[in-house]
What we know:
Blueprint: E1 2-8, E2 15-22, E3 28-35, E4 40-47, E5 53-56, E6 82-88, E7 93-100, E8 115-119, E9 142-147, E10 149-150, E11 172-175, H1 179-188, H2 191-210, E12 213-216, E13 222-226, E14 233-237, H3 251-259, E15 262-268, E16 273-279, E17 285-290, H4 294-297, H5 306-322, E18 327-330, H6 340-351, E19 355-358
Parallel strand pairs: 18-19
Antiparallel strand pairs: 1-2, 1-10, 2-3, 3-7, 4-6, 4-8, 8-9, 11-12, 13-14, 15-16, 16-17
Helix pairs in contact: 1-2, 5-6
Amino acid sequence: MGKGVAVLNSSEGVKGTIFFTQEGDGVTSVTGTVSGLKPGLHGFHVHALGDTTNGCMSTGPHFNPDGKQHGAPEDANRHAGDLGNIIVGDDGTATFTITDCQIPLSGPNSIVGRAVVVHADPDDLGKGGHELSLATGNAGGRVACGFIEILSSLPSLRNQTVVPSPSNFRSPVTYFPDSRLLSYLFSLVPVWLKSRNLIYFEAFFKLVSLVTVLAPRSFFGVEDYVDDDTSRPYTYQKEKKSKNPDKHVSFKQRTVAYMEPFTLDVFISKRFVSASLTHRVTFKQVAVAGTNSKDVKAVLRSRCDIPACMSIGRILSERAKEADVYTASYAPRDQDKFEGKIRAVVQSLIDNGIDVKIYLD
Length: 361
């Protein structure tokens, strides 16, 4: 079963959440609740682009892979994204369920990575006679929109950083002295001394052999722990005092090169999209994909839309697997926001088998 979700936001106070569910290759069920609208009918469509950087205006036209005219959901000649109208009650809220066979969650015509849009006016379903009827249904302005993403993969976008607790380094552990070590130490005691105080020495070593010693974890130098979420062993080295406190290297800085050796970099421009995986220590790029390369741009309709971003994520994942790389970490640049096209690239990587850890400030 495929599941998707879109969270609607608007500067006009319209909010809502739309869920998409598809069983196998069957029809897709769309259920949702939208509030903050004026009572009546409102056009409801899937638009071609998931780009919301300029509000709903940057989501492009209706999703129309077959190049048809606008129509009603039951018409043969219609856009794939034509979902008709939603009905808003007197309280300004619409609760609805729609089923449709032209908005799959997988395959070449998948709506994942695109946007769902609520319009200000009713959709005339292409029958209003207006000059915009066969293009947009004359549904008016775009009052709210949301990026459609796969619901099942959202938890993997959360911060999965493993942070050792300070108590791990100071809590005592039980240490049992080795009896062979005690016997060896006892043998080193001079015979003349043991002959004089034999009773006291035997009593002392027998007592020590029965008593456990509480030692700090740092006494052992290296301790092994297991992360409860992933059941993967990590080795934490004991803390060392820096000779120069101003140049102290944190625990994370010392170990991140071993725990997360590969970093993901995504670059989005108005003309192309590129992404790469780089080894943190050697700075060697182990996998690169971009819409400017000849083999990629030859099969894409556009080099900078959401489908292109998802294609780059898929291609990069294939090349990463060829290099035996299955994990990466990603932190957006200061000027980048983790949404729209950037999120589409990362989401596509995750959907295609690369475990990406996201670090958001």
